[in-house]
Amino acid sequence: MALYIKILTDLLELGVIAMSRYITPKIEVKDLLFVSDEESEIKCGKCEKPMSFTVYYKDKETYDFLVCKGCEVYLQRIITEE
């Protein structure tokens, strides 16, 4: 829980999640189609390495994750396409 709070604090300071909410994933990432990956300025609260903004797609929905590849920490935000 402390890791989650540290990451959210970093996101807020950078202005990344003014109105966004990141949660523990409720969907299996391995079932999604990879779209893009971009390194962020946000550091993992566990290993202090930079996290990535990663986007996946499935069934007309995009799934936006904040990912630490070293620790395999995934925080999810779902974006519904119109």
In short:
The protein is 16% helix and 44% strand. With 82 residues, it is α+β, with helices and mostly antiparallel strands.
Walkthrough of the structure:
With 82 residues, the chain is α+β, with helices and mostly antiparallel strands. It has one domain (2-80). The protein is 16% helix and 44% strand. It contains 1 helix and 4 strands. The chain has a 4-stranded antiparallel β-sheet with strand order 1-2-3-4. Strand 2 (50-58) and strand 3 (61-68) form a beta hairpin. The radius of gyration is 12 Å and the shape is globular. The termini are far apart. The relative contact order is 0.24. The mean pLDDT is 79.
Helix segment count?
Answer: 1
Give the beta-strand count: 4
- Compute the number of structural domains: 1
Biggest beta sheet attributes: 4 strands, antiparallel
Query: What level of helicity do the residues show?
Result: 10-25%
Average pLDDT works out at 79
The portion of residues forming beta strands comes to 35-45%
Strand order of the largest sheet: 1-2-3-4
Give the overall shape, derived from the CA principal axes.
globular
Protein structure class: alpha+beta
Report how far the terminal alpha carbons are from each other. Answer: 33 Å
H and E string:
HEEEE
Uncertain residue ranges? none
- C-alpha Rg (nearest Å): 12 Å
Furnish the topology, listing elements before pairings.
Blueprint: H1 2-14, E1 33-43, E2 50-58, E3 61-68, E4 73-80
Antiparallel strand pairs: 1-2, 2-3, 3-4
